[in-house]
Write a structure and sequence with these properties.
mainly alpha, 3-stranded antiparallel β-sheet, globular
Length: 683
């Protein structure tokens, strides 16, 4: 009877209740009413941090009616149409009551329900009135139940009519204290923590984990506001989020870091040599902000494909196939990748009106109060990193890791507050692997910011990071150190500086050899970043990187790792020395196989890039080997139609070389197929 809505299916304080259909049988309706009533009565008063009185009297009234519904059902009484109609109205009201109780007890929503206390009280009042109205018109005399049961129904109706539904005075006082604290922050004044402690006590937010649940909930609500393009409450939500971040960092000194170890491990980042071209819409050629997939399996930006469909087109713009349905399926995985890519490089997804607000909003604070809250918190954490106990320093680094995870403004505040140097010192002094993981993870998040990279290098952070890469107390710490190397290598002068440190490339190669899949990926992309400086090419080649990449191609089934490894090989192949080293391996038999069989478009495009460079730099001998592979041309044709503009251009160039080879091989002019050996600039 009632649809079970997941919390992600509906918005807070929105009640998608439905009236039972007219053709429903009385028996089915009664069974559903009993189930609904039982679910509502299972809510215990202790679950409510606010709205306790309103919830208690609503549950009590429905508990009285539950006895009535159960006896009516058990007696199998015949019900008139008028009774069924009243029961339908009660069913509709009960659905809304259940939704309201779900929201009032939702994990992490205590502060938000307090803020919405007037709205919630109004909802309780409206629902109790609806129950009273339905009971007033219920022809109780036509229902043959016991006198005592009828008296219970009359009592429930009387209580519903006379119910006094209002905001609890304690809730009102706590609400005013929240507004006072936010007002202080907005004026640049750090409030007395005792005010907020009283609010937290009232809401039964008693520890770090409780506070963190509130933060996660508020972050979800902000994301929903932006995804719904209804941002009216987003600034206020941002102020509350900043307040809870401040409370978690400043007020809750005690934290059970042992229970959060798994969280730290799960946050280990696996980097990728992401090709931004993969994020462009085939129609507009702009970065996609809302990617959707059509029935042919192709992905487009929503606004572009909608304009295409509105113009009356029902063929897929890329493949030319007829679309079996105009339905657009959100590609949430790709959207998250685009958001993460934009966050990492610190740019917006688009400068157009449909820009990625998810990214743009993190560049600046969500509200003036949120800005001040973050600044006060950053300074507090910086002081803790310098003057705190060993446990307090580790906890401060843990907070920084959370705050800087996906928020550009937070990163800038933390860097300006001076957290990087003490984080480096903590990294150098850590003798316990968990503390080292937290410190290196915090530095990793800050290294994504432009000023963070500069601060790390200028504060002498490169040496301790390299020490962790070599001798880290855990594999996870080494993996994160490799990720920092990748971000630092995005700055041109640092590529040379890092590459000239003798142990860097060999250590990264060891990580690729012995690490987990995540470790291998981070080692591979760190080398990719270093290869952007031509002086590092010979170091990479002489460290045995190419044979390791060949091992990955032969043994790994991870598409992303293979694609990233091919990106490194493509960078190596652009130099003549790199090509010659590649030709010493079995690359010319392995890479065409990847081109034929890989499901990853990036892997196929990098495969073609490698083959093209090998043909250009390796002379006729290399191209003659490829020319013998009769399946290669068909693979290139597929990429020509399905690939990105980058991949298609590479496929076209390789096809021209192969065609020219076949045309000239019979005339003995093979040497003219490819140009003379020449240096190639690293891209």
């Amino acid at each position: 009877m009632i649809r079970n809505f997941d919390q992600t299916d509906r918005r807070m304080l929105k009640f998608p209740a439905v009236h039972p259909c007219e053709a429903i049988s009385p028996e089915t309706l009664l069974n559903s009413l009993v189930n609904l009533s039982q679910n509502i009565c299972n809510y215990q008063p202790k679950l409510f941090s606010t709205q306790r009185k309103n919830a208690r009297q609503t549950i009590r009234q429905i508990g009285l009616l539950l006895l009535f519904f159960e006896e009516t059902r058990d007696l199998r009484l015949a019900l008139t149409d008028s009774v069924v109609l009243c029961f339908s109205e009660l069913h509709h009201a009960f659905q809304k009551v259940q939704f309201l109780l779900e929201d009032c007890t939702r994990e992490g929503a205590k502060l938000w329900i307090l803020i919405k206390c007037q709205v919630v009280s109004t909802q309780f009042r409206a629902l109790i009135r609806a129950i009273a109205t339905a009971l007033d018109v219920l022809p109780l005399g036509l229902i043959d139940v016991g006198v005592e049961v009828k008296e219970l129904v009359e009592l429930a109706g009387k209580q519903a009519r006379n119910a006094k539904v209002e905001v609890d005075p304690e809730d009102e006082r706590a609400l005013q204290q929240v507004f006072s604290v936010l007002d202080h922050f907005e004026k640049g004044i750090e409030p007395d923590s005792s005010f907020m402690k009283r609010v937290l006590d009232h809401l039964e937010i008693r520890n770090w984990n409780d506070c963190n649940k509130e933060i996660k909930f508020l972050e979800e609500q902000i994301d929903l506001q932006h995804s719904d393009c209804d941002e009216r409450e987003a600034p206020f939500l941002s102020s509350l989020l900043g307040l809870m971040n401040y409370c978690r960092g400043v007020i809750f000194e005690t934290w059970n870091h042992r229970s959060n170890k798994s969280d730290a491990r799960h946050s280990i980042e696996a980097l990728s040599c992401i090709n931004a071209e993969d994020f462009r819409c085939p129609i507009s050629l702009e970065m996609m902000t809302d990617p959707v997939t059509v029935s042919t399996g192709q992905t487009y930006d929503r606004s572009s494909i909608q304009r295409w469909l509105k113009a009356g087109n029902m063929t897929c713009p890329k493949t030319g196939e007829r679309m079996t349905s105009p339905e657009l399926v959100p590609n949430t995985t790709l959207r998250k990748l685009i958001q993460q890519f934009c966050t990492d490089v610190g740019v917006c997804a688009s400068s157009s009106g449909g820009q990625s607000r998810d990214i743009a909003r993190t560049i600046s604070p969500g509200s003036p109060a949120a800005a001040e809250e973050m600044k006060f918190l950053s300074r507090f954490l910086a002081r803790r990193l310098v003057f705190g106990s060993s446990e307090q320093k580790t906890k401060a680094a843990y907070e920084i890791r959370f705050l800087a995870k996906s928020n550009i403004f937070n990163r800038s505040c933390l860097i300006e507050a001076g957290t990087i140097l003490p984080l480096i010192n903590l990294l150098s002094s850590s003798s316990e692997h968990h503390a080292q993981e937290i410190a290196i993870s915090a530095l990793l998040k800050l290294s994504k910011h432009t000023s963070g990279k500069k601060e790390i290098v200028e504060s002498g952070g490169l040496k301790p990071i390299l020490a962790v890469l070599q001798r880290g107390l855990s594999l996870e710490a080494k993996q994160m150190a490799a990720a920092i190397i990748f971000y630092l290598a995005s700055v041109k002068p640092y590529r040379k500086l890092i590459g000239e440190t003798p142990e860097v490339v060999p250590t990264l190669v060891e990580l690729i050899k012995d690490g987990t899949t995540c470790g291998k990926k981070n080692g591979v992309v760190a080398i990719f970043g270093l290869l952007l400086h031509s002086g590092n090419h010979q170091r990479v080649i002489s460290s045995g990187t190419i044979p390791l990449l060949m091992d990955i191609f032969s043994s790994s089934d991870n598409d992303e790792l293979i694609a990233d490894s091919l990106a490194v090989l493509a960078a190596i192949a652009e130099s003549v020395d790199g090509t010659l080293a590649i030709l010493q391996t079995s690359a010319l038999s392995i890479i065409p196989r990847i081109l034929r069989s890989s499901a990853s478009r990036a892997a196929r495009e990098y495969s073609v890039t490698v083959l093209l460079s090998v043909c250009k730099n390796g002379g006729s001998e290399a191209i003659s080997i490829l020319a013998k592979d009769h399946s290669l041309m068909s693979s290139l044709y597929v990429l020509l139609t399905d690939g990105s503009s980058y991949g298609s251009s590479k496929a076209r160039a390789l096809m021209k070389l192969l065609h020219k080879f076949h045309e000239t091989s019979s005339s003995g002019r093979i040497a003219s197929v490819v140009p003379r050996e020449r240096p190639v600039h690293v891209w």
